[in-house]
Every structure is written in C-alpha cells, then in structure tokens.
Amino acid sequence: MQFSDFEEITIGDHDEKVGREVVKWLNDPRSPSEGGCQGPGRAVGIMKSHDIVMDGTTITLNGMSTACIAEAGCHGINLNGFGEEYPF
C-alpha cells in the first residue's frame, strides 16, 4: 500500500470485526471500512468494482476464493501459493 498509487484499497475479511481492525491499523485514507465478506455472494459483489484482488486466504479456501475472483471478472493474485486456481 505504501508504494502504490491505487485510488482505493478495500480490506475484506469473513470476520467483520477483524476487517475493521485491519483498516484501522493500516490508517490509510484510501481504505474504506469494508470489513465483512461473509459468503461468496457478498465477496463477489465487493470484488466486481475492483481491478485486482490480493487473495491472502488460507490454502484450504483457494478454490472458493479463486472462483469468486473469476466470477467477479477481476484479476487476482494468490498470496499463499499456487494450486487449484490453475483451471480458472
């Protein structure tokens, strides 16, 4: 975030409280208070308005998170490795 020129950076977490804590910790004016991404439908809805998703979910969620990124139609970078997302 420190060296980017993105206009908006959205933080999402399945636990809305944790997501809001991260936004507060980052203290970046480009980060809206978007904490909750409960369920694939909500996550896809949030992702659709973004150019890129940095996916930091656990490996066990790779398939679901990659499917959400593909459905949203945006680019995605998986931060925890490469596996089941290859077919997407």
Layout of helices and strands, plus pairs?
Elements: H1 16-26, H2 40-47, E1 52-55, H3 62-72, E2 75-78
Parallel strand pairs: 1-2
Task: Give a written overview of the molecule.
This protein has 2 domains: 1-38, no CATH class; 40-88, no CATH class. It is 34% helix and 9% strand. It contains 3 helices and 2 strands. Strands 1-2 form a two-stranded parallel ribbon. Helix 2 (40-47) packs across helix 3 (62-72). The radius of gyration is 13 Å and the shape is globular. The mean pLDDT is 82.
Short structural description:
With 88 residues, the protein is an alpha+beta fold.
Mean pLDDT: 82
Distance between the termini: 27 Å
H/E topology pattern = HHEHE
Radius of gyration, in Å, reads 13 Å
Based on Cα principal axes, name the global outline.
Answer: globular
Tally of distinct domains: 2
Helix/strand/pairing class, anyone? alpha+beta
Count of extended strands: 2
> Regions with pLDDT < 50 over 5+ consecutive residues?
none
Number of helices: 3
Strand residues, percent: 5-15%
Strands of the widest sheet, in order across it, are: 1-2
Largest sheet: 2 strands, parallel
The proportion of residues forming helix, as a percent range, comes to 25-40%
Keywords:
two-stranded parallel ribbon; 88 residues; 2 domains; alpha+beta
